[in-house]
Design a protein that fits this description.
- GO terms for molecular function: glutamate racemase activity.
- Keywords: Isomerase.
- This is Glutamate racemase.
- The chain is α/β, with parallel strands linked by helices.
- The protein has two domains: 141 residues, 3-Layer(aba) Sandwich (Rossmann fold); 107 residues, Rossmann fold.
- Helix content is 42%, strand content 15%.
- It contains eleven helices and ten strands.
- Strands 1, 8, 9 and 10 form a four-stranded mixed β-sheet that branches.
- Helix 3 links the parallel strand 2 and strand 3.
- It starts with 7 loop residues before the first helix and ends with a strand.
Length: 260
């Protein structure tokens, strides 16, 4: 679940881990963007999206949104667990900082400098040199599938990224959908040699499987179905979603599209 198509990265990661998994993508096009909402309002919208997904009785629910995890994880867990395990998404600051290098954290302007992100840096990146890089407009551009706006926002963020960084944290789930563009922009600035990128999609998918006692099985038959919920009503992947490799993976390559 997410406000929009930021959930594609985690869903595609789950599809790669388990081609036989039935996936439900629950988003909120009627209420997005969630970022500018008050914490209480955002939590209410997120809870509605979670309830829509929970009505289909999934084995687990991934909150594939950093902002919703911050503001809505306790409320969603209180309502759904233990019947449905709920997995939140946290920026991959800890693994990025483990080697004590020079870390750039790309995040939304609201998250950059926030007590939440500063707390993660304090707790998990004390031995690293960290630069917080705000990325105004990038999530919105990704959501709209606007390639020109994505390029402009990525270029602006790349210009704010120190040339000597060793690790880059993609601190918004939307950013993982345009990782190739980020890599290309930073390759021009830093040379790209040895630069390591850290997203949340794969770790979150693995954690969800762990919570339900399942194991990754990339070689499983590609029999998994796809159900798309848009503000609670069944729908289809948007044209913007299909502009990304993750969306195309979810819509095809042997996966049935339809109900559970």
């Amino acid at each position: 679940m997410d406000s929009g198509i930021g959930l594609l990265a985690a869903a595609a990661a789950m599809r790669r881990q388990r081609p036989d998994a039935d996936l439900v993508l629950s988003s909120d096009p009627d209420g997005m963007p969630w970022g500018p909402r008050t914490p209480a309002d955002l939590a209410g919208r997120a809870l509605g999206v979670a309830r829509a997904a929970a009505a289909l009785r999934p084995d687990a629910l991934i909150i594939a949104c950093n902002t919703a995890t911050v503001h809505a994880l306790p409320a969603i867990r209180a309502e759904l667990e233990p019947a449905i395990p709920v997995i939140g998404t946290v920026p991959a600051i800890k693994p990025a900082a483990a080697a004590g290098g020079r870390v750039a954290i790309w995040a939304t302007p609201a998250t950059t400098g926030s007590p939440y992100q500063r707390g993660l840096i304090r707790d998990f990146a004390a031995g690293a040199h960290v630069t917080e890089v705000p990325c105004p407009g990038l999530a919105d551009a990704v959501e709209a599938g606007d390639a020109d706006a994505v390029s402009a926002a990525v270029a602006a963020a790349a210009a704010l990224t120190p040339a000597d960084v060793t690790d880059v944290v993609l601190g918004c789930t939307h950013y993982e959908l345009v990782e190739p563009a980020v890599r290309a922009a930073l390759a021009e600035r830093t040379g790209g040699a040895g630069l390591v990128y850290h997203g949340s999609a794969e770790p979150v998918a693995v954690q969800a499987l762990r919570r339900i006692g399942a194991a990754p099985d990339p070689g499983a038959p590609a029999t998994g179905t796809l159900t798309v919920l848009l503000s609670g009503s069944e729908g289809a992947l948007s044209a913007a979603a299909l502009a990304y490799a993750e969306g195309r993976l979810l819509a095809g390559e042997g996966a049935a599209v339809g109900g559970r």
